[in-house]
Design a protein that fits this description.
Length: 540
């Protein structure tokens, strides 16, 4: 029986149902890097950067060679020490892990998910549900458990996104099968585990409503709205809002049709090929255009995203917590000048609350203390010209200095944890859009900041499509590497993964973790760009 490699949990290798001892933690980490790039060579420098990050050993190549030798002894105990390894081979481009077909659990996972989606498209919902549950059963906890570092964290997030997308597909299938009542407990657990996935919240609310639990469904919507407002200052997506409106109207189309309900009650329900399954998602209302000359097409039913043009999430006016518009900034400067230095602390304090900045809060207290001290000096030493001069100087600084300070703040972009989280949410949503609806993503220009009316995708960049000036802005790239990337992709074809940039010697391996967060590798396939799972080049 060939070896079975597992990374959907703690990294394990099983041979004849016996787990193999892989040695110390760093040695297991080296194997994990090779398995994440199964059947592809990995340069030694990339292995060193992934395993040791910012503290590589002085003789990193020799240490990697030592760990490879230890892995070969564990995986191929009968191999002669002087013969080349079969499972772990050394090539000109680096070390390569030869994994047989169906030998890696993540490959089995993706195969099952693809088969399930094909069965779902064909109306074979029983088969789709079975394939999805088989795929999810491969997970033995958190992927790559026990391995730390930016490289493994990024890989863990990518694998977690794929797992969550499989859960969302399973929810669609089970709802179409009429299993809404039994699905509720599982969806409650998933919403708690993945609170940012609006698709799971949508399915939970719909399952509660179809189960006759309308009050709980409305309460679940309120919980979702409060969570998004408190954490990100955004409203629920158009799909959730439309579902809420339809529940308030008691829209009968939210329930299963009699034919589907009767089929769901059978011991082994199947959807007839002559009748397509009932749509799970309400059709979204028409969306506002990205620009006056380029309208955004309506997303297909089932789109699990809150889409909107421009820099914001969704369609709404300015609200507290957002970066203030120009008229608010002008009013802040005028209020500081008109207040004669007495309200400077109040304006700076408002900025501190808006940006959740402790430093600005301390500065606001400093302005308040400055004004209080200057007033106290004037009252206490009215006949002392020197003290009066000091008081006037402090007052003048609080007045005009405060106005200049407020004006400077208007030109400084808002920074902080909330902005970073919002950008991550936008990138995640854009990647879901690219995975599930590549044609719409192509029309919106996901990953194309060079296009006019650019859709706000959180700063994603399609390395296979953007021009050199955009490539030059990427971390660790610059003009010379941008030119080399453009020439390489024109001669050797598009990049399949972000790691290909390092494998082709175009970027430094130490920059890959930062690049993985913002780069997508769009492929041309039937007229659309496809990137099913960030960091992977599999075409569905």
């Amino acid at each position: 029986m060939p070896h079975r490699f597992e990374i959907l949990g703690p990294i394990r290798v099983v041979d004849d149902d016996q787990e193999i001892d892989l040695g110390p933690g760093k040695q297991r980490a080296v194997l994990a890097v090779l398995l994440l790039n199964a059947n592809k060579p990995v340069p030694t420098a990339q292995i060193v950067d992934a395993v040791w990050q910012d503290e590589p050993p002085e003789n990193g190549a020799n240490v990697v060679q030592k760990y490879i030798a230890g892995l070969r002894r564990a995986l191929e105990p009968e191999r002669s020490p002087r013969t080349p390894g079969q499972l772990l081979a050394l090539t000109e481009a680096g070390y390569l892990a030869r994994v047989p077909d169906n030998g890696l659990d993540i490959d089995l996972f993706h195969d099952c998910v693809r088969a399930a989606r094909a069965s779902q498209a064909a109306g074979q919902l029983d088969e789709a549900a079975a394939e999805l549950r088989a795929a999810l059963a491969l997970w033995q906890g958190e992927a790559l458990a026990g391995l730390s570092g930016g490289y493994f964290t990024a890989a863990r997030e990518r694998l977690g996104d794929a797992r969550c997308a499989a859960y969302e597909t399973l929810g669609e299938v089970e709802l179409a099968r009429g299993r809404h009542a039994s699905l509720v407990p599982e969806l409650v657990r998933l919403v708690a585990e993945f609170p940012l996935r609006e698709q799971l919240r949508y399915q939970l609310i719909l399952a509660l409503y179809r189960s006759g639990r309308q009050a709980e469904a409305l309460a679940a919507f309120r919980t979702a709205r409060e969570f998004l407002a408190d954490e990100f200052g955004v409203d629920p997506g158009s799909q959730l809002q439309e579902l809420h409106r339809r529940m308030l109207r008691s829209d009968p189309s939210l329930l299963l049709t009699p034919v589907a309900a009767e089929a769901a009650a059978l011991p082994h329900p199947r959807v007839p090929t002559a009748a397509p399954p009932v749509p799970l998602m309400a059709p979204a209302p028409p969306m506002a255009p990205v620009s006056p000359v380029s309208p955004v097409p309506m997303p297909p039913a089932g789109l699990p995203l809150a889409l909107g043009p421009g820099p914001g999430l969704g369609q709404r006016g300015w609200r507290w917590g957002d970066s203030p518009p120009n008229w608010v900034r002008l009013c802040a400067v005028l209020a500081t000048l008109a207040g004669a230095g007495l309200v400077t602390w109040l304006v700076i304090g408002a900025y501190a609350v808006n940006r959740r900045s402790r430093i600005l809060g301390l500065i606001a207290f400093a302005y308040l203390g400055l004004g209080a001290v200057s007033c106290a000096i004037v009252d206490a030493t009215a006949d002392d010209p020197n003290a009066g001069g000091y008081a006037i100087g402090m007052w003048f600084f609080a007045w005009f200095g405060g106005a200049v300070h407020v004006a400077v703040l208007n030109f400084l972009p808002k920074r902080g944890r909330d902005d970073d989280l919002e950008r991550r949410v936008k990138r995640e949503q854009a990647r879901q859009l690219l995975q599930h609806h590549p044609a719409l993503a192509h029309q919106l220009g996901v990953g194309r900041p060079d296009l006019p009316g650019h859709f706000d995708d959180g700063g994603l960049v399609d390395v296979n499509a953007v021009p050199e000036p955009v490539l030059a802005t990427l971390p660790g790239v610059g003009p010379q590497r941008a030119w080399a990337i453009a020439v390489d992709r024109s001669r050797r074809g598009p990049f399949g993964t972000v790691d290909d940039l390092a494998a082709r010697g175009l970027v430094e391996p130490r920059d890959l973790d930062r690049l993985r967060e913002i780069i997508i590798c769009g492929q041309t396939f039937s007229g659309h760009r496809v990137d099913p799972v960030p960091g992977h080049s599999t075409l569905a």
